[in-house]
């Protein structure tokens, strides 16, 4: 039996938050004797029972290596793995299933492109454009590649609200620019970048675009064909799925033009000691035994998201975000880092006179999970001249009560610390 | 007092606190009371970079004893830093190098010394021991 034959999750109309919450077992835990308020969803999301069951079912009913055996179990596991690929294709509206490369996560996906695209297309004197709000995993791989190939990394600045300077972007585009790699949604500021415009401008310049969608896919519907984006990277664990699996979408023409990333099993057609011919897409980029159970069960998380509906999720989260911003604004001495009008899911702030670490420690004592620090965006912290922020990030299962708890917690922390 | 006598005294002090709030309020108070290193002296040589908070540590030697002054940009870290300084400063190098710092666990603050906290505290304790070892080796 495959997990897909499980009882379907119930369809929720309109948004039934109590039912959604009930699907996530870990949300019922307590921390320091207090009911958990989980607001660290930007780091990773909790998993619904549906996904947890799928993981258990994989090991009790399907476990086998994929793409290799002719035996029954191997066929079951291979089919289930390929079913996920197909679900991913539909989820982001890709044209072909073989444009979906299953990776270990966003970081792996970006490194794959920086390495392989770099080898194929980047020469000395060429340029790659990123933005000032990138996660380290969309900075360092490009730095490494540029250093190796004698290319230059160019950074599009942002304004004080955390919005991209599109005029500066336009000025940076020239015929040396081989690729533009930007985040769809900032994991620190919550800013939603104008990706349609970014892509269009890059294409007019003849440069392909990679979007880091790690903070986007779980919050909004994405259509890679409508966007005409060249590469898209995201992680399973941030979209209610398992850890250790992620996606690289790439347009067929680019993936075919790039050399393989790693060598090994699965990625070959023929191996002799003289010469190896490589496998077709997507296997050319999938060397070795992957995280099979995570790959298969990512399919379950997509089913779960689809049953609830990304549009419903987006609508609900937008309301909650709005509620949270208004509620937090009442706190004395609060300073928001990131004030873009187009924003999603993430709220970064500081309380005047306190260090984010101290606020985080007190919140933890109150059972509230937030993230503190630089959120893997150190250059962005330097841009604002701050050591870090307190970051609350919401998911489909958060409630107004969670936000009220956060506001009360921050007020209490401020009373203790000031 | 020896390192262990100071530790035992701290454990006795902390036993009075009824709950985490009181304990943290005390640590915050300690942090506030001790402006440990002047801003102008906080050079990068003294900086121990944690991911979450930063710690500065200054060590001076006199007659085989090491005197520590330390500071942090986060107040809770600073309070904990001042506890460490209380326990280790002015002690003999050999005692610092081999000290068993059991008080942190006993007063329920062990989490703060975990490497995943990345608050600089663990790195500071390591640095304190390194100073002591270096002095012994002389
Ligand atoms: C915007 C962004 N990009 C990349 C990453 C890296 O994702 P992962 O650690 O899953 O590879 C994250 C997650 O922290 C992120 O928020």
Question: Keywords for this structure?
Answer:
heterodimer; A: 418 residues; Aspartate Aminotransferase, domain 1; Aspartate Aminotransferase, domain 2; 2 domains; seven-stranded mixed sheet; 14 helices; B: 138 residues; alpha+beta; Sufe protein. Chain: A; four-stranded antiparallel sheet; 6 helices; 4 strands
SSE class of chain B = alpha+beta
User: What is the level 1 CATH name of chain B?
Assistant: Alpha Beta
N-end to C-end Cα span of chain A: 58 Å
Low-confidence stretches of chain B: none
Rg calculated over all Cα atoms of chain B: 14 Å
Structural class of chain A: alpha/beta
Order of helices and strands of chain B: HHEEEHEHHH
Major β-sheet profile of chain A: 7 strands, mixed
Name every ligand kind in the structure: pyridoxal-5'-phosphate
Can you count the beta strands of chain B? Answer: 4
What strand order characterises the main sheet of chain A? Answer: 4-10-9-8-7-5-6
The top-level CATH class of the largest domain in chain A is: Alpha Beta
**Do you know the CATH architecture of the largest domain in chain A?**
3-Layer(aba) Sandwich
């Amino acid at each position: 039996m495959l997990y897909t034959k499980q009882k379907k999750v119930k369809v929720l109309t309109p948004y039934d938050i109590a039912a959604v919450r009930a699907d996530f077992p870990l949300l019922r835990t307590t921390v320091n004797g207090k009911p958990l308020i989980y607001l660290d969803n930007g780091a990773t999301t909790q998993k619904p029972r549906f996904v947890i069951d799928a993981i258990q079912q994989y090991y009790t009913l399907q476990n086998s290596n994929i793409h290799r055996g002719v035996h029954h179990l191997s066929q079951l596991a291979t089919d289930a793995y390929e079913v996920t690929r197909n679900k991913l294709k539909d989820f982001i509206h890709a044209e072909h299933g073989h444009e979906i490369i299953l990776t270990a996560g966003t970081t792996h996906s970006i490194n794959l492109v920086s390495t392989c695209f770099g080898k194929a297309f980047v020469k000395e004197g060429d340029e790659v454009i990123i933005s000032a709000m990138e996660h380290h995993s969309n900075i360092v791989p490009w730095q490494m590649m540029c250093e190796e190939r004698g290319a230059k990394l160019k950074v599009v600045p942002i304004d004080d609200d955390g919005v991209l300077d599109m005029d500066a972007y336009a000025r940076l585009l020239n015929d040396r620019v081989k690729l533009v790699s930007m985040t769809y949604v900032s994991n620190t500021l919550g800013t939603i970048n104008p990706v349609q415009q970014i892509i269009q401008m890059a294409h007019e310049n003849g440069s392909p675009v990679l979007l880091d969608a790690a903070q986007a896919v779980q919050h909004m519907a994405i259509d890679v064909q409508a966007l005409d984006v060249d590469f898209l990277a995201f992680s399973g664990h941030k979209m209610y799925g398992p850890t250790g699996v992620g996606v690289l979408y790439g347009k067929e023409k680019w993936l075919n033009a790039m050399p393989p990333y790693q060598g090994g099993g699965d990625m070959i057609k023929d191996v002799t000691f003289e010469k190896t011919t490589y496998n077709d897409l997507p296997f050319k980029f999938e060397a070795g035994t992957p995280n099979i159970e995570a790959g298969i069960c990512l399919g379950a998380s997509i089913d779960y998201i689809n049953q609830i509906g990304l549009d419903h999720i987006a609508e609900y989260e937008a309301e909650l975000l709005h509620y949270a911003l208004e509620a937090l604004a009442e706190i004395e001495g609060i300073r928001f880092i990131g004030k873009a009008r187009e924003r999603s899911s993430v709220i970064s702030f500081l309380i005047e006179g306190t260090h984010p670490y101290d606020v985080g420690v007190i919140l933890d004592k109150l059972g509230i999970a937030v993230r503190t620090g630089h959120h893997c965006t150190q250059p962005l912290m330097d841009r604002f001249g701050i050591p870090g922020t307190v970051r609350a990030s919401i998911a489909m299962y958060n409630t107004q009560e969670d936000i009220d708890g956060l506001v009360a917690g921050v007020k209490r922390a401020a009373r203790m610390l000031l | 007092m020896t390192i262990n006598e100071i530790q035992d005294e701290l454990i006795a002090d902390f036993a009075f606190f009824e709950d985490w709030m009181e304990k943290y309020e005390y640590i915050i108070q300690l942090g506030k009371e001790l402006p440990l290193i002047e801003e102008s002296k906080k050079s990068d040589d003294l900086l121990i970079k944690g991911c979450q908070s930063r710690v500065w540590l200054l060590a001076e030697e006199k007659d085989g004893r090491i005197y520590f002054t330390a500071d942090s940009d986060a107040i809770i870290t600073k309070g904990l830093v001042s506890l460490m300084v209380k326990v280790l400063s002015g002690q003999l190098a050999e005692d610092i190098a081999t000290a068993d710092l059991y008080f942190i666990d006993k007063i329920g603050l062990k989490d703060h010394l975990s490497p995943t906290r990345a608050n600089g505290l663990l790195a500071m304790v390591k640095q304190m021991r390194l100073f002591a070892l270096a002095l012994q080796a002389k």
